[in-house]
Amino acid sequence: MVDIDLRLYVITDENLSLETGLMEKVRQAIEGGATVIQYRAKNKSSKQIYSEATALKKLCREYGIPLIINDRVDIAVAVDADGVHVGQDDLPVEVVRRIIGNGKIVGLSTKTLEQVVEANTLPVDYIGFGSVFPTTTKKDATLSGIEMLREAVKLSIQPVVAIGGINAENVDSVLQTGCENVAVVSAVFSADSPFKAAQLLKQKILKGRRWRV
Amino acid sequence: MVDIDLRLYVITDENLSLETGLMEKVRQAIEGGATVIQYRAKNKSSKQIYSEATALKKLCREYGIPLIINDRVDIAVAVDADGVHVGQDDLPVEVVRRIIGNGKIVGLSTKTLEQVVEANTLPVDYIGFGSVFPTTTKKDATLSGIEMLREAVKLSIQPVVAIGGINAENVDSVLQTGCENVAVVSAVFSADSPFKAAQLLKQKILKGRRWRV
User: Fold this and answer.
1) Which end of chain A is more exposed for a tag (fewer CB within 10 A), N or C?
2) H helix or E strand, kind and range, residue B9
3) Does a structural domain hold residue A122?
4) Quick check: A47 and B89 CB within 8 A?
5) Which helix (DSSP H) or strand (DSSP E) does residue B26 occupy?
6) Total domain count, chain B
7) Residues forming beta bridges with residue A126, ordered by sequence position
8) Chain A interface with B: residues with Cβ < 8 Å
9) What is the largest CA-CA distance in chain B?
10) Phi-psi bin for A19: left (phi > 0), alpha (psi -120 to 50), beta?
11) Measured between CB atoms, which of A77, A78, A89 is closest to B47?
């Protein structure tokens, strides 16, 4: 298991590329307080994914921030990323762990409490849980809501990262469940200033500590 | 470099799955004379790709036929496939080679004579060249034609596998260029009997030896 600060977990927007400001926006997210970057690309060629992951790894290393690759274990190995995040329709986590080894981070998306309980038996370092709120990033996402997130945090033996439609307006309600970690895409990358958006979220997350038992 | 019989190189059809006869049709292709199977899936989830690749590896091992995975190096590692085939928009072959090691096969698609010459300097075991003929499998494929294939075979220091719209009617013209290896998708998988389609192609390829210098 790898020690990792998951508090402000920023996932890249598929619509961004090296040509359209991906690096500059991720840099702003990091300077605003992102504690980890996940690179997610489902509809790009492997060549483009490799180029972007290579550039992101260099950027993240500059700031000492871990880079996690969504789904593509080969890309993670190729760029020596810090970990891999998989969903329920991706490679099984046991297979991912076997390929990348124990020195790397493995995260798993969960959508139901059954999946949270199952994840307790799997070689993962953290789980994502959601969608907590409706999201425009994944239109077919299963909606879990705040109360189920509260249950997920209680049930999980791993750190839980809340995901799905979280922004500066609703993040307090997420933190009040006891969940300490928040993943965002559009709250940062659709903002006029990804820096300010990340900074505001980070401030709320840091203040959110007072709700914890 | 790995010694591999590339003469009848059968690539799986994206439209087939475990539920719609993928295994049975690939088995027929092998029994008809396929010398190598490439598993290609671009629009399936990683979970499905992993399941199918696992089943195909088992089947190919049963017959002593190598299994090559298109693009996804992680899947190749996960199922211990015999190699990886990449296109010009996939991971760079140097990166593929670094991940899977020297004991595995690496193939590269080429579309132009410049790419053929460049491939001579790369750590690949063979190249694909085409599309030789118009193909329905890749609608945006670059058409090279028979004469350019003849040049590719002369220029390449690696074995060349002709690809694109090749079937029993036109395979002789391919073999007459000096190309000894033929890749097919629909000629086998769109046939009523993949077994008979593969067998007919294989017979023509074996007879085609007489054209070789």
Assistant:
1) C
2) strand B8-11
3) no
4) yes
5) helix B22-32
6) 1
7) A107
8) 45-48, 50, 71-75, 77-78, 86, 88-92, 95, 98-99
9) 46
10) alpha
11) A89
Domain assignment of residue A143, yes or no: no
ipTM attached to this prediction: 0.90
**Which of B47, B89, B99 lies closest to A45 in CB terms?**
B89
> A115 lies in a domain?
no
Neighbours of B193 (CB within 10 A): 13
Residue whose structure tokens are 């211990």: B80
Residue B148 lies in a domain: no
Q: What is the pTM of this model?
A: 0.93
CATH code of B92's domain: 3.20.20.70
From first to last of the 213 residues of chain A, give the pLDDT tens digit.
568 999 999 999 999 999 999 999 999 999 999 999 999 999 999 999 999 999 999 999 999 999 999 999 999 999 999 999 999 999 999 999 999 999 999 999 999 999 999 999 999 999 999 999 998 777 777 788 999 999 999 999 999 999 999 999 999 999 999 999 999 999 999 999 999 999 999 999 999 866 554
Range of the domain at B31: 8-106+161-209
Q: Is A196 exposed, middle or buried (0-12, 13-18, 19+ CB in 10 A)?
A: middle
